[in-house]
Protein backbone atom coordinates (compact mmCIF):
# COMPACT_ATOMS: atom_id res chain seq x y z
CA UNK A 1 0.00 0.00 0.00
CA UNK A 2 1.31 3.50 -0.84
CA UNK A 3 2.50 5.34 2.32
CA UNK A 4 0.11 8.28 1.82
CA UNK A 5 -2.86 5.97 1.29
CA UNK A 6 -1.86 3.93 4.32
CA UNK A 7 -1.66 7.04 6.52
CA UNK A 8 -5.07 8.20 5.34
CA UNK A 9 -6.51 4.79 6.14
CA UNK A 10 -5.03 4.87 9.64
CA UNK A 11 -6.40 8.36 10.27
CA UNK A 12 -9.88 7.34 9.13
CA UNK A 13 -9.67 4.16 11.18
CA UNK A 14 -8.64 6.13 14.28
CA UNK A 15 -11.54 8.55 13.87
CA UNK A 16 -14.05 5.73 13.52
CA UNK A 17 -12.48 3.92 16.44
CA UNK A 18 -13.24 6.87 18.70
CA UNK A 19 -16.91 6.62 17.78
CA UNK A 20 -17.04 2.99 18.90
CA UNK A 21 -16.72 4.12 22.52
CA UNK A 22 -20.42 4.96 22.28
CA UNK A 23 -21.18 1.30 21.59
CA UNK A 24 -18.74 -0.22 24.05
CA UNK A 25 -19.94 -1.08 27.57
CA UNK A 26 -19.41 1.70 30.11
CA UNK A 27 -19.14 -0.74 33.00
CA UNK A 28 -18.26 -4.36 33.46
CA UNK A 29 -21.44 -6.43 33.87
CA UNK A 30 -21.55 -10.17 34.38
CA UNK A 31 -19.88 -11.73 31.33
CA UNK A 32 -22.31 -13.06 28.72
CA UNK A 33 -22.10 -16.84 28.38
CA UNK A 34 -21.58 -17.66 24.69
CA UNK A 35 -21.71 -20.81 22.61
CA UNK A 36 -20.17 -19.94 19.24
CA UNK A 37 -21.18 -22.27 16.41
CA UNK A 38 -19.18 -21.89 13.18
CA UNK A 39 -18.74 -23.77 9.90
CA UNK A 40 -15.10 -22.56 9.55
CA UNK A 41 -14.80 -23.71 5.97
CA UNK A 42 -15.84 -21.75 2.87
CA UNK A 43 -15.34 -18.18 4.13
CA UNK A 44 -12.77 -16.41 6.29
CA UNK A 45 -15.17 -14.19 8.23
CA UNK A 46 -15.64 -17.16 10.59
CA UNK A 47 -11.99 -16.84 11.59
CA UNK A 48 -12.42 -13.09 12.02
CA UNK A 49 -15.45 -13.60 14.24
CA UNK A 50 -13.57 -16.16 16.33
CA UNK A 51 -10.77 -13.63 16.83
CA UNK A 52 -13.38 -11.11 18.00
CA UNK A 53 -14.82 -13.70 20.37
CA UNK A 54 -11.48 -14.14 22.12
CA UNK A 55 -10.86 -10.40 22.43
CA UNK A 56 -14.29 -9.94 23.99
CA UNK A 57 -13.45 -12.74 26.44
CA UNK A 58 -10.06 -11.15 27.20
CA UNK A 59 -11.90 -7.97 28.17
CA UNK A 60 -14.42 -9.70 30.37
CA UNK A 61 -17.49 -9.02 28.24
CA UNK A 62 -18.14 -12.69 27.57
CA UNK A 63 -17.36 -16.19 28.79
CA UNK A 64 -16.79 -18.69 25.97
CA UNK A 65 -18.58 -21.93 26.88
CA UNK A 66 -17.89 -23.80 23.61
CA UNK A 67 -16.85 -23.27 20.00
CA UNK A 68 -18.80 -25.92 18.14
CA UNK A 69 -18.30 -26.64 14.44
CA UNK A 70 -21.22 -27.18 12.04
CA UNK A 71 -19.10 -28.25 9.08
CA UNK A 72 -18.26 -31.86 8.29
CA UNK A 73 -15.12 -30.76 6.41
CA UNK A 74 -12.26 -32.75 7.92
CA UNK A 75 -10.07 -29.82 9.02
CA UNK A 76 -12.65 -27.32 10.25
CA UNK A 77 -12.45 -28.40 13.91
CA UNK A 78 -8.61 -28.47 13.93
CA UNK A 79 -8.63 -24.94 12.50
CA UNK A 80 -10.87 -23.74 15.34
CA UNK A 81 -8.64 -25.59 17.78
CA UNK A 82 -5.54 -23.82 16.40
CA UNK A 83 -7.11 -20.35 16.80
CA UNK A 84 -8.36 -21.15 20.31
CA UNK A 85 -4.89 -22.37 21.27
CA UNK A 86 -3.18 -19.31 19.80
CA UNK A 87 -5.47 -17.09 21.84
CA UNK A 88 -4.70 -18.96 25.05
CA UNK A 89 -7.85 -21.07 25.44
CA UNK A 90 -7.02 -24.60 24.27
CA UNK A 91 -9.46 -26.03 26.81
CA UNK A 92 -12.61 -24.67 25.11
CA UNK A 93 -14.88 -27.60 24.13
CA UNK A 94 -15.20 -28.23 20.39
CA UNK A 95 -17.86 -30.51 18.94
CA UNK A 96 -18.72 -31.55 15.39
CA UNK A 97 -21.73 -33.08 13.58
CA UNK A 98 -21.72 -36.86 13.71
CA UNK A 99 -24.63 -37.42 11.33
CA UNK A 100 -26.03 -35.85 8.18
CA UNK A 101 -25.26 -32.27 7.26
CA UNK A 102 -23.65 -30.08 4.62
CA UNK A 103 -21.55 -31.77 1.98
CA UNK A 104 -17.86 -32.14 2.77
CA UNK A 105 -17.07 -31.23 -0.84
CA UNK A 106 -17.58 -27.54 -0.07
CA UNK A 107 -13.98 -27.42 1.13
CA UNK A 108 -11.94 -24.50 2.42
CA UNK A 109 -9.08 -22.35 1.16
CA UNK A 110 -7.50 -22.15 4.59
CA UNK A 111 -8.71 -24.69 7.19
CA UNK A 112 -6.37 -27.55 6.24
CA UNK A 113 -3.37 -25.24 6.00
CA UNK A 114 -4.08 -23.63 9.38
CA UNK A 115 -4.34 -27.09 10.95
CA UNK A 116 -1.00 -28.06 9.38
CA UNK A 117 0.91 -24.84 10.09
CA UNK A 118 -0.21 -24.08 13.65
CA UNK A 119 -0.23 -26.15 16.86
CA UNK A 120 -3.52 -27.93 17.56
CA UNK A 121 -4.63 -31.03 19.42
CA UNK A 122 -7.27 -32.22 16.99
CA UNK A 123 -5.94 -33.86 13.83
CA UNK A 124 -9.33 -33.97 12.12
CA UNK A 125 -13.03 -33.59 12.87
CA UNK A 126 -13.07 -37.28 13.76
CA UNK A 127 -11.05 -36.51 16.91
CA UNK A 128 -13.74 -34.16 18.27
CA UNK A 129 -16.82 -35.28 20.21
CA UNK A 130 -20.37 -34.82 18.99
CA UNK A 131 -21.63 -31.25 19.03
CA UNK A 132 -24.84 -32.51 20.60
CA UNK A 133 -22.89 -33.90 23.54
CA UNK A 134 -20.98 -30.63 23.93
CA UNK A 135 -24.18 -28.58 23.78
CA UNK A 136 -25.97 -30.78 26.26
CA UNK A 137 -23.09 -30.83 28.74
CA UNK A 138 -22.58 -27.06 28.59
CA UNK A 139 -26.27 -26.20 28.77
CA UNK A 140 -26.93 -28.64 31.62
CA UNK A 141 -24.38 -26.94 33.86
CA UNK A 142 -25.30 -23.34 32.95
CA UNK A 143 -27.69 -21.19 35.01
CA UNK A 144 -31.23 -20.91 33.67
CA UNK A 145 -31.80 -18.34 30.90
CA UNK A 146 -28.11 -17.47 30.75
CA UNK A 147 -26.69 -18.80 27.48
CA UNK A 148 -26.43 -16.85 24.23
CA UNK A 149 -26.01 -19.03 21.15
CA UNK A 150 -24.41 -17.48 18.06
CA UNK A 151 -24.45 -19.44 14.80
CA UNK A 152 -22.34 -18.23 11.88
CA UNK A 153 -22.57 -21.45 9.90
CA UNK A 154 -25.04 -24.21 9.16
CA UNK A 155 -27.82 -25.06 11.60
CA UNK A 156 -26.98 -28.77 11.66
CA UNK A 157 -25.93 -28.81 15.30
CA UNK A 158 -29.04 -27.00 16.52
CA UNK A 159 -31.33 -29.35 14.62
CA UNK A 160 -29.54 -32.30 16.22
CA UNK A 161 -29.73 -30.65 19.65
CA UNK A 162 -33.50 -30.16 19.30
CA UNK A 163 -33.88 -33.87 18.49
CA UNK A 164 -31.72 -35.06 21.39
CA UNK A 165 -33.08 -37.02 24.34
CA UNK A 166 -32.17 -37.39 28.00
CA UNK A 167 -28.62 -38.57 28.65
CA UNK A 168 -25.93 -38.62 31.35
CA UNK A 169 -25.67 -34.82 31.24
CA UNK A 170 -29.35 -34.01 31.76
CA UNK A 171 -32.72 -35.75 32.15
CA UNK A 172 -34.21 -33.07 29.88
CA UNK A 173 -34.82 -33.40 26.17
CA UNK A 174 -33.02 -31.04 23.82
CA UNK A 175 -36.08 -28.83 23.45
CA UNK A 176 -36.49 -28.67 27.22
CA UNK A 177 -32.84 -27.75 27.71
CA UNK A 178 -33.10 -24.97 25.15
CA UNK A 179 -36.22 -23.50 26.75
CA UNK A 180 -34.65 -23.65 30.21
CA UNK A 181 -31.12 -22.44 29.51
CA UNK A 182 -31.00 -20.26 26.37
CA UNK A 183 -31.31 -16.49 26.79
CA UNK A 184 -30.82 -15.39 23.18
CA UNK A 185 -30.07 -16.98 19.79
CA UNK A 186 -28.41 -14.90 17.06
CA UNK A 187 -28.29 -16.54 13.63
CA UNK A 188 -26.24 -15.36 10.65
CA UNK A 189 -27.95 -16.55 7.50
CA UNK A 190 -30.06 -15.50 4.55
CA UNK A 191 -30.46 -12.15 2.82
CA UNK A 192 -33.26 -9.68 3.52
CA UNK A 193 -35.96 -8.89 2.63
CA UNK A 194 -35.49 -11.99 0.47
CA UNK A 195 -32.90 -14.19 -1.18
CA UNK A 196 -34.46 -16.49 -3.76
CA UNK A 197 -31.36 -17.44 -5.76
CA UNK A 198 -31.12 -21.26 -5.46
CA UNK A 199 -27.33 -21.33 -5.93
CA UNK A 200 -25.61 -23.21 -3.12
CA UNK A 201 -23.95 -20.56 -1.00
CA UNK A 202 -24.71 -18.96 2.32
CA UNK A 203 -25.51 -20.71 5.57
CA UNK A 204 -29.00 -22.08 4.89
CA UNK A 205 -28.65 -23.76 1.51
CA UNK A 206 -25.87 -26.32 2.21
CA UNK A 207 -28.08 -28.01 4.85
CA UNK A 208 -31.56 -26.63 4.11
CA UNK A 209 -33.51 -29.21 6.11
CA UNK A 210 -31.72 -28.12 9.29
CA UNK A 211 -32.36 -24.44 8.58
CA UNK A 212 -36.02 -25.12 7.96
CA UNK A 213 -36.40 -27.24 11.11
CA UNK A 214 -34.73 -24.65 13.34
CA UNK A 215 -36.67 -21.72 11.89
CA UNK A 216 -39.97 -23.54 12.43
CA UNK A 217 -39.37 -25.35 15.73
CA UNK A 218 -36.78 -23.46 17.80
CA UNK A 219 -38.51 -22.68 21.13
CA UNK A 220 -36.98 -19.26 21.89
CA UNK A 221 -36.80 -16.04 19.83
CA UNK A 222 -34.37 -16.11 16.88
CA UNK A 223 -32.48 -12.95 15.92
CA UNK A 224 -31.60 -13.23 12.22
CA UNK A 225 -28.75 -11.26 10.67
CA UNK A 226 -27.87 -10.92 7.00
CA UNK A 227 -26.09 -7.57 6.63
CA UNK A 228 -22.33 -7.24 6.37
CA UNK A 229 -21.54 -6.88 2.68
CA UNK A 230 -20.73 -3.20 3.11
CA UNK A 231 -18.75 -3.70 6.35
CA UNK A 232 -15.32 -4.51 4.93
CA UNK A 233 -12.70 -5.61 7.46
CA UNK A 234 -9.40 -7.48 7.53
CA UNK A 235 -6.89 -4.93 6.28
CA UNK A 236 -5.48 -4.31 9.76
CA UNK A 237 -4.71 -8.03 10.19
CA UNK A 238 -1.59 -7.44 8.10
CA UNK A 239 -0.23 -5.43 11.03
CA UNK A 240 -0.63 -8.34 13.47
CA UNK A 241 2.11 -10.93 14.13
CA UNK A 242 2.90 -13.29 11.26
CA UNK A 243 2.21 -16.26 13.54
CA UNK A 244 -1.43 -15.17 13.95
CA UNK A 245 -3.55 -17.96 12.41
CA UNK A 246 -6.41 -15.53 11.72
CA UNK A 247 -4.11 -13.31 9.69
CA UNK A 248 -2.94 -16.42 7.84
CA UNK A 249 -6.53 -17.56 7.19
CA UNK A 250 -7.37 -14.22 5.59
CA UNK A 251 -4.21 -14.34 3.48
CA UNK A 252 -4.99 -17.84 2.26
CA UNK A 253 -8.63 -17.08 1.53
CA UNK A 254 -8.29 -13.61 0.00
CA UNK A 255 -4.90 -13.60 -1.69
CA UNK A 256 -3.97 -10.03 -2.66
CA UNK A 257 -7.33 -8.65 -1.50
CA UNK A 258 -7.08 -7.38 2.07
CA UNK A 259 -10.69 -6.61 3.01
CA UNK A 260 -13.74 -8.82 3.19
CA UNK A 261 -17.44 -8.54 4.16
CA UNK A 262 -18.18 -9.07 7.85
CA UNK A 263 -21.44 -11.00 8.00
CA UNK A 264 -20.36 -13.24 10.88
CA UNK A 265 -18.73 -10.46 12.88
CA UNK A 266 -21.87 -8.29 12.67
CA UNK A 267 -23.95 -11.12 14.11
CA UNK A 268 -21.53 -11.71 16.97
CA UNK A 269 -21.35 -8.00 17.74
CA UNK A 270 -25.13 -7.80 18.07
CA UNK A 271 -25.23 -10.91 20.27
CA UNK A 272 -22.73 -9.39 22.71
CA UNK A 273 -23.75 -5.73 22.49
CA UNK A 274 -27.47 -5.67 21.67
CA UNK A 275 -27.88 -2.28 23.35
CA UNK A 276 -25.51 -0.50 20.95
CA UNK A 277 -27.22 2.53 19.34
CA UNK A 278 -26.89 1.47 15.69
CA UNK A 279 -29.14 -1.63 15.74
CA UNK A 280 -32.66 -1.48 14.31
CA UNK A 281 -34.84 -4.50 15.07
CA UNK A 282 -37.71 -5.62 12.84
CA UNK A 283 -40.12 -7.52 15.06
CA UNK A 284 -43.15 -7.97 12.81
CA UNK A 285 -43.43 -10.96 10.52
CA UNK A 286 -41.05 -13.90 10.23
CA UNK A 287 -38.25 -15.44 8.20
CA UNK A 288 -39.77 -17.97 5.80
CA UNK A 289 -37.22 -20.57 4.70
CA UNK A 290 -38.00 -22.67 1.65
CA UNK A 291 -37.06 -26.33 1.23
CA UNK A 292 -34.01 -25.42 -0.87
CA UNK A 293 -32.69 -23.02 1.78
CA UNK A 294 -33.69 -19.77 0.10
CA UNK A 295 -35.51 -17.31 2.34
CA UNK A 296 -38.00 -14.47 2.40
CA UNK A 297 -39.10 -12.16 5.22
CA UNK A 298 -42.89 -12.27 5.28
CA UNK A 299 -45.22 -9.84 7.00
CA UNK A 300 -47.45 -12.46 8.58
CA UNK A 301 -47.94 -14.42 10.69
CA UNK A 302 -45.80 -13.05 13.49
CA UNK A 303 -43.40 -15.56 15.01
CA UNK A 304 -40.55 -15.28 17.49
CA UNK A 305 -38.32 -14.03 14.67
CA UNK A 306 -36.48 -10.71 14.86
CA UNK A 307 -34.44 -9.18 12.05
CA UNK A 308 -31.24 -7.33 12.98
CA UNK A 309 -30.63 -4.31 10.75
CA UNK A 310 -28.53 -1.13 10.67
CA UNK A 311 -28.40 1.86 8.35
CA UNK A 312 -25.60 2.26 5.79
CA UNK A 313 -24.52 5.42 7.59
CA UNK A 314 -23.47 3.26 10.56
CA UNK A 315 -21.32 0.89 8.50
CA UNK A 316 -18.12 2.80 9.18
CA UNK A 317 -18.63 2.79 12.95
CA UNK A 318 -19.43 -0.91 12.98
CA UNK A 319 -16.40 -1.63 10.78
CA UNK A 320 -14.08 0.20 13.17
CA UNK A 321 -15.36 -1.76 16.16
CA UNK A 322 -15.03 -5.09 14.37
CA UNK A 323 -11.57 -4.35 13.00
CA UNK A 324 -10.28 -3.39 16.44
CA UNK A 325 -11.75 -6.48 18.09
CA UNK A 326 -10.37 -8.74 15.33
CA UNK A 327 -6.84 -7.42 15.60
CA UNK A 328 -6.41 -6.66 19.29
CA UNK A 329 -4.60 -9.46 21.04
CA UNK A 330 -4.86 -8.89 24.79
CA UNK A 331 -3.80 -12.39 25.75
CA UNK A 332 -1.91 -15.14 23.94
CA UNK A 333 -1.29 -18.76 24.78
CA UNK A 334 1.93 -20.70 24.56
CA UNK A 335 2.47 -22.05 21.07
Brief rundown of the structure:
With 335 residues, the protein is an alpha/beta fold. Helix content is 36%, strand content 16%. It has a single domain, classed as Ribonucleoside hydrolase-like (Inosine-uridine Nucleoside N-ribohydrolase, Chain A), CATH 3.90.245.
Q: Topology of this structure?
A:
Blueprint: H1 3-19, E1 32-38, H2 45-58, E2 62-69, H3 76-86, H4 111-117, H5 131-141, E3 147-152, H6 156-163, H7 174-181, E4 182-188, E5 194-195, H8 208-217, E6 222-225, E7 232-233, H9 245-254, E8 260-261, H10 263-272, E9 280-282, E10 286-289, E11 295-298, E12 305-309, H11 315-327
Parallel strand pairs: 1-2, 1-3, 3-4, 4-6, 6-12
Antiparallel strand pairs: 5-11, 7-8, 9-12, 10-11
Helix percentage: 25-40%
**Helix/sheet category:** alpha/beta
Output mean pLDDT: 92
What's the helix count? 11
| Shape type | globular
* Main pleated sheet: 7 strands, mixed
Give your account of this protein's structure.
With about 325 residues, the protein is of the alpha/beta class. It contains eleven helices and twelve strands. It has helices at about 5-20, 45-60, 75-85, 110-115, 130-140, 155-165, 175-180, 210-215, 245-255, 265-270, 315-325, and strands spanning about 30-40, 60-70, 145-150, 180-190, 195, 220-225, 230-235, 260, 280, 285-290, 295-300, 305-310. A hairpin with a 5-residue loop joins β10 (about 285-290) and β11 (about 295-300). α1 (about 5-20) packs across α11 (about 315-325) and α6 packs across α8. The radius of gyration is 19 Å and the shape is globular. The two termini are about 30 Å apart. The mean pLDDT is about 90.
